[in-house]
Amino acid sequence: MLHKPPKTIRSIRYAFSSNTTSSMPPQAVFQEVHRVLLLLAQMYGEDRFVFERISDYYVLQCKLYDTGHKRVEVAFEIEVAKVWLLKLHGVRIKRLMGEPLLFKEFYTNIIAELHL
């Protein structure tokens, strides 16, 4: 299900930069995001950092659990979408819950590892 193409790709307006946009097709951008998330899972431990795909779109929900695996320290969503009015595809990373500083660390690591 992870590499199954979605029915549609959303077109969204958001603050984007050259680090989070690409002219590559959305499937290639999604595979690159998946590669980076696998690196993060190795870095934080596969039992603590988990991610799953929302089936209808190019969206991944990510969660980092504490060491006891009892509570979520940070949860965020990564989406590959078409940039509104442009022929580009971008990566939008949105914090859902948890500590902002921990999310910032994840955001910085993801942007540093992405090769778009």
UniProtKB/TrEMBL annotation:
Molecular function (GO) terms listed?
ATP binding; protein serine/threonine kinase activity
Q: What catalytic reaction does the record list?
A: L-threonyl-[protein] + ATP = O-phospho-L-threonyl-[protein] + ADP + H(+); L-seryl-[protein] + ATP = O-phospho-L-seryl-[protein] + ADP + H(+)
- EC number(s)? 2.7.11.1
- Which positions fall inside the KA1 domain? 67-116
Protein keywords: ATP-binding, Kinase, Nucleotide-binding, Serine/threonine-protein kinase, Transferase
**Cross-referenced CDD domains, in alphabetical order?**
MARK_C_like
| InterPro entries per record | KA1/Ssp2_C (IPR028375), KA1_dom (IPR001772)
Protein known as: non-specific serine/threonine protein kinase
Q: Which species does the entry assign this protein to?
A: Gonapodya prolifera (strain JEL478) (Monoblepharis prolifera)
For this protein's source organism, the top of the classification is: Eukaryota, Fungi, Fungi incertae sedis, Chytridiomycota, Chytridiomycota incertae sedis
